[in-house]
Known about the structure:
The chain is an all-alpha fold. The chain contains 17 helices and 3 strands. It is 72% helix and 2% strand.
Amino acid sequence: MKKMGFKEFLYIVPVLFLIGVFSLWPVIQSFTYSFFDYRLNDQTKSELLLSEKFNVDLYSERSFYIERFLNQSMPEITDGEDRQQVEKLIADLNDLNQQFEGQEGVIKISGDVTDQVKNVYESADQLVAELSETYELVQEENLPLLIDDIQNSLVQSNFIGLEGYAKALTDDRLQYSLGVTLAFTIISVFLELVFGLGMAMIMNKAIQGQGFIRVTSLIPWAIPTAVAALMWSYLYDGHYGVVAAIFESLGFIENSTDLLQTSLGGISAVILADVWKTTPYMAILLLAGLQNIPNTLYEAASIDGASKIQQFFKVTLPLLKPSILVALLFRTLDAFRVFDLIYVLTSGGPGGATETMSVYAYKVMFGQMNFGYGSVIVMIMFICVAIIATIYVKVLGTNLMEKN
Length: 404
């Protein structure tokens, strides 16, 4: 086999670049975030920190007011030893300020400085508590709060390693959303395969208006998912929805308002909407496989006395297996990652009955601003998708090797 030369390699550089930017880099970022307690709604955890840092501005401001209030309280402090302790505390506060003179924002510090800041906090906290029992200090209520902010000026490392993954193993909500995702994927893909195969066989027949039938069958798939979900939400509405009224009249539900307000009704409604929208896509993929089957095989089977049902199971299905596997691969991966349809239609309700892993990850990341644990959920989804893809590729690859 001829080795790839430098010129041949240059042809695939743009492809490798696009894959790296749009596929690998987001995965690497999510993988990195999953090892941190990364929260945008918490100032102390709003960035990735492997070691402690120091908020110079916060410390400077708090130490200024502590020193000011202690100096104002000095006339009330009559005991000489107490006055010496106050003066020592003020000197320690100023000593730290001098070390960071000219610096601003959040900076890296050594372990010695960390210990020094903690010692200042502990001594200040203890001293103010003792003085408050004996003297009437200026801003006696606010002083402890200011001293607490000295400790808050130390921005702790938010690196948690595998703690996020350990939490995920005991997260009941995540396990439930995984079950919902698997149920949605298995049921919807199975129904889409059955209906899509039926549509493909109809479209494969040489009938009048064949082109028009193929074009019109793709309309549901061509509609944007968010628009389709909004449309189905009106059809499911318990007060004026046509589908809800039909289901009630057929006895599928007791009341039309129950369709989107019960667990079984919610997941059934989501699956129905997904099957309606995506079945045409499955049909087109299978139609391509059907058109590769020679008509001579059906003629030979007919001469041998095979019925239409026998021809389907003995000729169509075996030769269509590679196309079925490819269609199942695409649809399974797509269904497992479903988000927009469910988010627009039910937002994961009622009571989390339709909350898939992607919806749960979105709520954690953008609702709670917890990008660390949200990334853990995303990485678990990535692992599940990788396992599914590997299984399909193994089955597909074995089938193609046998065929060759």
